[in-house]
Amino acid sequence: MDLYEYQGKELFATVGLPVPRGMVAVTPEEAKAAAAQIGGRVVVKAQVQVGGRGKAGGVKLADGPAEARSVAEQIIGMDIHGHTVHRVLVEEASDIAREMYAALILDRGAKKVLAMLSGIGGMDIEQVAHEHPEALSRVWVDPLAGWSDYVSRRLCFGAGLGAELVRPMSDVFTKLWDAFTRYEATLVEVNPLILTADGRLVALDSKFSVDNNSLYRQPAVAAMRDVEAADPQEQMALERGVTYVKLDGDIGVLGNGAGLVMSTLDVVADAGGAPANFLDVGGGAKAEEIVSALEVITSDPKVKAIFFNIFGGITRCDEVANGVLTAVAQMGITMPIVVRLDGTHDVEGREILAQADVPNLFVEATMLAAADKAVALAAGRES
Amino acid sequence: MAILIDKGTKLVVQGLTGREGSFHALRNRAYGTQVVAGVTPGKSGQDVEGIPIFDTMRDAVESTGADVSLIFVPPRFAADAMYEAIDSGVRLIVTITEGIPAHEMLKVYNYLRAKGVAMIGPNCPGIISPGKANVGIMPPQIFLPGGVGLVSRSGTLTYQIANELTQKGLGQSTAVGIGGDPIVGSSFIDILARFQADPETKVIAMVGEIGGNEEEQAAEFITREVTKPVVAYIAGFTAPPGKQMGHAGAIISGTSGTAGAKKEALEAVGIRVGVNPTQVAALVQEAVAEL
Q: What domains, with CATH codes, occur in chain A?
C-alpha cells in the first residue's frame, strides 16, 4: 500500500525526522486557514500518488492566505496523469541551500535493505544513477544486524558529502530506519532531503510504501488506506475481502489462484478480447463465495460476458459446478458465462452444468477454447 | 533421485492438529510420504491418526529423525515456527502459510542462509516428487513420474501445466512451487541448480510471473550453469503497472518486472517461452524429442 506525502510525513514526525510545518486541506477555504495559521510564505502541494506533479502544475508557492486560497482552488479537482486531486498539503516554504536524496528499500533480489544516499536530489533517482553515478552511494544492510552508524558514514563518504554532514545525516538515517522498521515499509524515500540555509536537514517530500501483509498489526497505517480514491468495484471488492483488480475491457474474468487468473487474462487478450478485471476466488467453491465474486464483476457496467476459469486441485470441479449453478440462479444473471472446468472431478463437474441446461451458461474443457468462446460472446458474434 | 524430497524423506508437520494441517498431512501420508511427527505446543502424547504429536520441534526431530518440516501455522505465528524449525536440525522447511509480513521473511531468510537450511515458500503449494513423496497441498492425481523438472511461483498454474504435461505422457521428476511472495526461501536459481544436478531430470519447465527480477536472474544463471533444456512460461502480460495481481510478489513497479521484459531476457539466451500453458507443454514435448 502506498501512502500520500502528508501521511508519510505524519509517520516521519512520529520518529522525530524533521518535516516542514504543514496542514492538509480539502477545500480552498481550508487551505487559506492553514496558510494563515502557518504564517508567511507557503507551498500548496497536490496530494496524489503519481510522479511528475510539479511539472503538471500541482505544486505552487503562495504569499499568504489569500493567494493560498486561489492556488488551492486551481489545484483541487485537477487531474494529474489520471489521478484526481482531492487534497492539498499546505506547508511553510523552506529556504533551500542544497537538495539531496535518501532512501531505504526492501530489496527482494538481495534479500537485504538497500540504503541509498545521493548528494543530488529533487530529480528522478534513475536519472541521477544514470547521469551522476558517482553522486549516488548504496549500501545493503543485513536486517539481522540492523542499522549501524558506519553505514551512514559509508553512505556519506561514498556520495562525496563533506565530513560535516556525517553526523546530521547519520541522525536522519537512524530515524529513517526507525520509520522503515516500525511501520514495516517496503520503501521510504525522501526526495528531496534538503539542507536549509540555516544548516538543518529536512524531509521536504515523502514516498512511503508499506507491506500489505503487515497491516493486521499496523493499525495506524491501515487506517490511512484510501478507500474513497479506489474505483467503485475495487472498493466493493476490498469490503468483501475479494482479490480484485479493475482493468478496462468487457470480459469479466475469475478463477482460482493468482497465477492461473493472470494466465487467463493473457489468454483472453491473445484470443482478441479485453479482460475487464482480475479476480481470484481462491480455493473456495461455496455458492456464497462465488456470488460475492460475481456481484463485484457484474457491478461493472462494461462487462458483457464472464469467463470463469477453474482448475480443480484440492477444490473439486463438481463442487464448483454446483456452486456456480446456485450463484447464477440466485443472482439471475442473464449475460453469457463461460465456465471452464479442468482437473479433479472435471467430467462430473461439466456433466452437472450440462444437465442443468442454463441457456446463458457455456461449458468448456480447455482454457483456450473457453477464451475463444468468451471473446466471441462478448463481441456478440455468438449467443 | 528427484530433488528435495523422495521415499526416504521423514516429514514433521508444524500445525498438524489444525484443520488444514491434518487434512493435508493425511493426504501426504496416503500418497506414501513418511509423516513421522507433528508439533503442537502442549499436545505432546496425543496423535493424529497414529502420527505422534510433540511439544517442540527439537523433541520431534530427536525422537523420529525427521529431516523435513512442513509448516501450516497462521501468519502471525509462522516466523516463530520457521525459527524453531531452523534450530531443530531439519535440512528443509516447506512453508505453506500465506500472508507473512515481508519484514519477518527478510530476517528469517537471512537466518536460514546463515544456518545452511533450505526452505520452499512461504505462500506456496509445496513439493511433489511423483511416485515418491508429496509434501504440501498439491493434488497428486494430476502428476506422473518422469523426467520433467517443474518449478513455479504459483499454485494452480503449476497444476494446470503439470496436468497438460501428464496428459501428453510427460511425467515429472519433481514439481516445486517456490511461492508467490516477494521474499521466499528458494529462488528459481536454487531449484534450477538442483534440477541440473539431478540425473533423473531431463528437461526443466520454469513458470514465472510478473514482479521482481528473478526470471531475469534465472536466465543469466541458465546460460552459465544449466546444460539441460529449459522451457519457460510467464504469466501477467496484461497486468498494469502498480497493481498487485493477487500474489504479494506480483506487482510491477517502475519499468522492471514486466512479463515482456522477462520473456525477452529468457529468449535472448535461447530459452523457449510458451505463450500459454498448452503451448508450454508442447514445447516441453519438443525438447524431450530433441534429447
A: 21-92 (3.30.1490.20), 96-222 (3.30.470.20), 230-378 (3.40.50.261)
